[in-house]
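Reviewer 2 asked us to include a model.

Predict the structure of this chain.
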Amino acid sequence: MNVLLARTAGFCPGVKRAVETVYEQVRLHQKEKIFTYGPIIHNEGVIRDLEDQGVKIIHSAKELQTIREGIVIIRSHGVARNIYEQIEAQGLSCVDATCPFVKKIHKIVDEESQKGAYIVIIGNSDHPEVEGIRGWGRGQVSVIQTEEDAQRFELADKGQKVCITAQTTFNYNKFKDLVEIIDKKGYDIIVLNTICNATKVRQEEARRKYAKICHPVLHGKPPSNSSPHRIRSPRPIPPPRLPCSAGR
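Predicted model (structure tokens):
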């Protein structure tokens, strides 16, 4: 049996940076309590290893309120503005491991919404990155995930500017399709393609590999949007298996 390994296999740079940040904090602050806001990565082996070293996961803003001391690490997905404010108000130390590409989207949404633009985020509405991006809007914000969402999107003020951004790991072709639907409505739109190039390259490589293989195996965890499991294959093939990693 021949096995083809994708050249782009492995952690993306933003996730790699976040994971390394947590291990560095563990090494530097062995006597302090260390938390991550949400799982630092969708990899059970890494999560177990960090838990064994005392790192705990904060799952919500309500749970964050119960923390009285320690270091809170923001994962690569980023968080809403109010989470930073809450960490500061509680006197906790904050280490920001948000992916630089995600931070750029936060800045765009913050600035454009201050100018009065209606913010449209093209992405998965329940993904933590999208939840964080929404939290940087200062006005109207909508998340569009499907063609039906795009068709239903309407402005009350037809003259209002629309700023369109994207979840960094969203499918590039689907992003273009949804932008085209919105563009046909005739609104004054600015389109900022904020999909990470690493995501686009992985999706393109997976699509090329699909043309050559019989049984695809995407090594990752289903909740991870970085696993390119929404590939438009050029031919019918069995659905990809998604085994989780057994270790770091």
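Residues 233-237 have pLDDT under 50 and may be disordered. The longest strand covers residues 161-166. We have added this to the supplementary material.
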